[in-house]
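== Fold encoding ==
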Amino acid sequence: MERIERSAIDALLKVLQSRGFNVVAPTVRDDAIVYDEISSASQLPAGWTDEQAPATYKLTRRDDNALFGYSVGPYSWKKFLFPPILKLLEAQRTSSGFTMQTTTHNSTEENSVVKKYAFLGVQPCDLQAIAFQDKVFAGSMYTDPFYKSIRRDLMIIAVNCSRAGKTCFCASMETGPKAKTGFDLALTEVVLADDSYFLVEVGSAKGGELLKELPRRVAEPHEIEAVEQIIDRTRKSMGRHLDTLRLPEILSENREHPRWDHVARRCLTCANCTQVCPTCFCSTVEDVTDLAGTHADRVRKWDSCFTTEFSYIHGGSIRATPRSRYRQWMLHKLSSWVEQFGTSGCVGCGRCITWCPVGIDITEEARAIREQQPHSVTSF
């Protein structure tokens, strides 16, 4: 490991910008910590932290000036790799018929081309979420060209967590609080009464080349030990726990558990959980024409398994009740995703708990089903 000073973060941004990267990092906006493009380290959330609980999110000031002293906000990095709205195709009427053209433009930025991004401040749970999205959009069977074009040039600078929120359970999912793979550089912020610095771990050749351009020195043993203490303290202070032992099988065997009725009485099917989830990837495609009928766009938009339209076929919706829709979402995250991709679809970020208007807690629902298993006959 090597040590860089806090002042080197601005130097890091300048190097990235000189290489043509658009730097996306955490910043404060609309009373939340969100991810957006920044141009200076002064835009990072220095001295800010968050208080989270079921259906509760609030920004508060820290008693120090840490740059990354928070858990996770309402947004995840997927909105840059898998945009909420993406124009796929446009057609224009001409005198001889229609001309069609595929496009990689984000339809919220009509004239923009695919950007070259550097993500600064990716926490370990979100790092794992990006790896999950890679399986979906850039796997061996199917490839999303827009996703692949951004992912190819993406630079990822992770930040190990120094603070666990009350809805975090990444330690249960083995996705944090320390980044393991998938990053170019990984930073750990060490904040002391009279000092503040970062220890840096290199995760790739291009990350190593980037680090060479920053003022740095080899970390001393006591500095490395301080990082391990930070990680250990964060791991022990998780606000939630999820027992994953045989969890996919338990959920699959209990599709008719009475707990589904209990959660259905509370669930608003608002789709907040799927919108904030860093791994959810459901989408729909719409064709939109202008009033004159001379121009048409085919647009991909985020969708959710919580809407009745999502499972609609001729004759009605397959999942017509809140019970069936919540069960579909939770079983996909914690059970069938394992069969499909070889890993859980949940990274333990806790966003679905924080941003559920009625505070439904996925860890509590899983615990209740585990502890009271009638093992009834499976039906749909």
